[in-house]
Structure formats: structure tokens, C-alpha cells
Amino acid sequence: MRISVIGCGYLGAVHAACMAKLGHEVVAIDVDERKISELQAGRSHFFEPGLPELLHEVLQTGRLKFSSNIADARGSQVHFLCVGTPQRKGEYAADLKYVDAAFSSLIDALEAGNLVVGKSTVPVGTAARLADDLLERFPEATLAWNPEFLREGFAVKDTLSPDRLVYGVPSGEDGHRATEQLDEVYAGPMGLGTRRLVVDYATAELVKSAANSFLATKISFINAMAEVCDAAGADVTLLADAIGMDDRIGRKFLNAGIGFGGGCLPKDIRAFMARAGELGADQALTFLREVDDINLRRRIRVVELTRQLVGGSLLGKRITVLGVAFKPNSDDVRDSPALSIAAQLQLQGADVTVTDPEALSNAKGRFPELTYEPDFNAAVTKANALLVLTEWDQYRSLSPADLASQVTSKNILDGRNVLDPVQWRAAGWTYQGIGRP
Ligand code: UDX
70-125, pLDDT tens digit by residue? Predict the structure, then answer.
């Protein structure tokens, strides 16, 4: 099929490359010419494992092209909207200006029988509004909503073999045709057994908000348990193992630590609360405010634990933060709990050095005041405390014996509960986990 993808960020660039991998002819469009020229040269403007290799492969086939001109979408049968929906400044609600702008600019490129497919995470009701707009401006095309569930760090795999496909389509003949067109787009994954659900617009939009709310709730639940474990002298990692053995609960997303961040979970639960309020259903989601509060409390707690770890005062203490991306295998620092903790420690008088395998330049763009050190050994030298805040593999496998001679004081805070306390304590370190005695 001939496909256009509007928006070449974390979602769109991966989607475009994966669609080309599935055999489609793809044009990927973005207003940012710098991104387009990087991608056209086979370089990704963000870190995503497997993406550069995939770009290289599909660019060579000639099936993938990048453009900064929306008119190049003309000739495609299916158009995916993959632009961002950030949180509005000073509000909980999502900012739909990029979705609206992309949608409007696409209209002139549409041809009869085309399908416009929204993938961005939007407040429920957006698809119906855009469908009305389409009916007025170009009734020969149809709108579908097909939310994306990819995780950063696994984006290529999640796009090529998703665990489910959700199509939000209109009722009647248009809906049937839209379903057939999407089935053709996703024939590859469906052939490998990916399940697909066909629903109405509102349900499709809500599936995404509900899924992210559930994941956020699961993480905040275990972090709340970590608070209780701290108070009671229990171990939240063993507690998570034990409750996770119950199939109904499951062990995934029960890792207590410094909490969730990133470009999705925090802003999506806030946008969901804001939208529920507009719909008069705010009471249904008041629990998400608690989920958000528990999550933000983690950051304050880690600052306090660090203060205790270095003897009661942060003033002038040399603190090294290991990992600043919101999670490993990503260079994304949007709403990163690690970066927020690093900044807070610095504001409270500590001398903070941050290191990370991929996220330093993004972090520096957000908080230029911190010291950023790409060299691991230079970063840890003479530290009064090391803080593992993002669980990159290289930090999980650190050797307490090797590090001992480099630091000033053998203090380690394990913000993701990924180190073995027995091993670190045996090597003479003061080990501090989260919700672990
Ligand atoms: C998330 C959803 O998982 C994905 O389905 C959706 O499409 C986009 O949002 P992503 O933002 O890539 O994906 O990250 P995810 O893997 O969900 O992690 C989110 C945050 O939760 C990270 O900061 C991570 O460190 C944290 N987390 C995750 C925990 O603190 N504990 C856990 O047990 C799991």
C-alpha cells in the first residue's frame, strides 16, 4: 500500500520505518527539516535500539522517503497522524495544536477513498470532532483511530509485532472499508497472530488512556507498598515477587523505585483526569490524582534518603547520578524522575554530576546547571554518594570492589532496586534501596 506518516518523532519515525519493513511504500513527513534530513540520511535524531539499522535497510529498498512538504502525502491511500500531544503549560489537559494543525494541513492532499488514521494519544471525543470536520471539508475520505502502545526502547519490536491492534472506526459501510484498509496495512503482524479489535472512536481513544492509567496505577501501587515497607521494615522487592506469582496480579510493572516518567504516562493520566472533568465524570478518576501524588512523592523521598546517606546535609556534597533517562535504552528525559531528583539535589546545595550512556545532551538542554560527564570513571571519582536512578545494564552489573577506590565515601543509593544489597554491604558500602530494609 502507499502510506503517509505525518510526524517523525518517537512514534512516527518508528512507525514509518516499520511500515516500509512490512512492504509498504511510505512517505514520512515532518515540519522540522533538520529531522527530515537526518532521517533521510539514515540517522535517527533520538536513541532507539534497532531503529538506525532498520532505517538503513528500508531506505536502501527505496520504499521509504522523508519529506517536509505535506503535499507529498498526495497519492497515499492511508495517512497516519503521529504527532505529539504534550501537556498544556500550566494545565492538566493535552495540547492538541499539533494534531489539529497536521489534520488541517493534510486535507488538501487527500483523494477520494483515502483513510486518515490517528495514532496520537488524544482525549476521548477528539476523533468524533475530527470526523465531523472531515465530513465538512472532504467527505470522500474516512477517519479511523488506531492507538499506539509502543514502549520506548522496544519501539521497533512493538510496532512490527504488537500484542494487539485496536481500530476505532465509524459505523456502517465506511467502517467496514476502513477495517479492510487497516487489515491490509497490518497484514504482516496479523498473519503472525496479532489480535485485532474493531471498536467505535470513543472506545479506541479510551483504550489508550485506560491502559496507561492502569500501568501508572500498578507502579504507584507498588511504590505505596514501598512506603509501608519502609515504615514496617519489610522488603518491597520480595513482596512484589510474592504477590506477582498470583496470575491475576502478575509481576510486570511492580518494580518499586523512583517512580514513572517519560513522555506518556505522567501527561496521559493528567489529560485523562482533565477530560473526565469536562465530561462530568471527574469523580471516576480522582484516584489518578493519588497515583500522580504517590509518584511525585518518590522523588522527594529519594532526595531525603540521599541527605541521610551523606550524613544529614547535602551542602557541598559530591553526588553522582548514574542514569538520567526516564528509563534504560532511551535518551528521553521528558518528565524523567532521575533528572528531577538530580536538579533538586543541586538546588539544595549538593554538587551534582550526572552520567548516562545516551541521555546527557537532552538532559543538558533541560537543566544546564548540572555537571554532565560522559566518562563513567570521571563521573564517580571522589563522590560522596552514587545514585543509580536509571537501571541501564552497565549500572546493574557494577562491581562494588572496583568502585571502592574511586569514591570518597562508599555510599550507594539504588533508586531502582536492581543491585544486590548483600554484595554491596559485604564490600563495605552503605547500601540504601527503596522500600528495602
Ligand atoms: C508507556 C507504555 O508502556 C506504552 O504502552 C505507551 O504506548 C507509552 O507509555 P514508555 O513511556 O515507553 O511506555 O515507558 P514504560 O516502559 O511504560 O515505563 C514508564 C515509566 O515507568 C518509566 O519511567 C519506568 O522506569 C517506570 N517503571 C516501569 C517503574 O518505575 N516500575 C515498573 O515496574 C515499570
Answer: 999 999 999 999 999 999 999 999 999 999 999 999 999 999 999 999 999 999 99
Helices 286-309, 265-278: axis angle to 10 degrees equals 150
Domain 233-437 part of CATH 3.30.1640.10 = no
The number of the ligand 1 atom at minimal distance from the alpha carbon of 268 is 9
Residue to substitute in 215, 218, 389 for testing ligand 1 pocket (most ligand atoms within 8 angstroms of CB): 215
Q: Do the two domains 2-199 and 233-437 of this chain adopt the same fold?
A: yes
In degrees, to the nearest 5, what angle opens at C-alpha 269 toward C-alphas 267 and 275? 100
- C-alpha 264 to ligand 1 mean position (Å): 8
Give dist(CA 217, CA 53) in Å, integer.
35
Quick check: CB of 262 below 6 Å from ligand 1? yes
State the Cα–Cα distance between residues 327 and 262, nearest whole angstrom.
Answer: 8
Q: How far is the CA of 265 from the centre of ligand 1 (A)?
A: 7
State the closest ligand 1 atom to the C-alpha of 254, by its place in the atom list counted from 1: 33
Give the residue extent of every domain in the chain. 2-199, 233-437
Record the pTM: 0.97
With vertex at residue 175, the alpha carbon angle to CA 126 and CA 125, rounded to the nearest 5 degrees, is: 15
In the prediction, which pLDDT does 173 show? 98
Cβ burial of 430 (10 Å; 0-12, 13-18, 19+) is: middle
Strands annotated E in 356-420? 371-372, 385-388, 411-414
Fold for domain 2-199? Rossmann fold (3.40.50)
Query: Which atom number of ligand 1 is nearest to the Cα of residue 416?
Result: 30
The pairing of strands 64-67 and 385-388 is: unpaired
Q: How far is the CA of 319 from the centre of ligand 1 (A)?
A: 26
Atom 25 of ligand 1: nearest residue by CA position: 327
Helices (H), 256-285: 265-278
Q: How far is the CA of 418 from the centre of ligand 1 (A)?
A: 16
- Name the pLDDT band for 280 (thresholds 50, 70, 90): very high
Question: Does 264 participate in catalysis according to the annotation?
Answer: yes
The reported pLDDT for the residue numbered 247 is: 98
Q: Does ligand 1 lie within 6 Å of residue 326's CB atom?
A: yes
* 119 close to 15: Cβ distance less than 8 angstroms: yes
Q: Tell me the pLDDT tens digit for each residue of 231-258.
A: 999 999 999 999 999 999 999 999 999 9
Handedness of CA 319, 320, 321, 322 (dihedral sign): negative
Cβ–ligand 1 distance for 253 under 6 Å, the answer yes
